[in-house]
Design goal:
Layout: H1 3-6, E1 12-17, H2 20-27, E2 31-35, E3 38-43, E4 46-52, E5 57-61, H3 68-74, H4 80-88, E6 97-103, E7 106-109, E8 114-115, H5 120-127, E9 132-137, E10 140-146, H6 152-193
Helix pairs in contact: 4-6
Length: about 190
Amino acid sequence: MSYDERTTADDVRVEIHLNPFSFRETISRYRIESEDSWVKLVGKEGEYLAKEFDSYAVLVYPIYLIPTELIRSLSYRIPSIDRLREVLMKPYHWRDFVTFRVREGFIMSSDLELNVFLGMDLVNDVLVTTGLEFINLEDKLEIACRLQDFGSGSLDKAFRRISLGLSLYFELKRSQEDVALKLSREFLSKILSD
């Protein structure tokens, strides 16, 4: 399946705000209306639905495209989002929020803009059975995961796999740097011994 088949303007955007304090600051620029257990935010750019939990917040848009099952599932705390926060709220990886494009059958990050790494195709070949994939978009990587449905169990599983995929990405990048440094030192000693 090519990128064009997976993402269109009809994707629902789900922003996971990993820092509730910065989320509150962000939404302060919008007019706030009530919408059941969700808050409806209205601004120049459009309308959004927002829900805050103790350790994260969710912002979903465009409202007219949001499937009922997705909004129902996001109404309850998803435990694996804490793991996502643990991966992304570290020095050198710090992110206050991540935007995902969601549609029937898949979820994909849209603003991580990770660096392409050598061996990505090999890693994707290994990950194929998990439904996880690194996708190269104009020399920046995003991460995608198959989504069984919009149920809370399926979302929890997808976010857990995305978190593990991001942990793998950061470990691969660190390992590549370690190997590069080790080889450089070996070659430096050979050059200096000439």
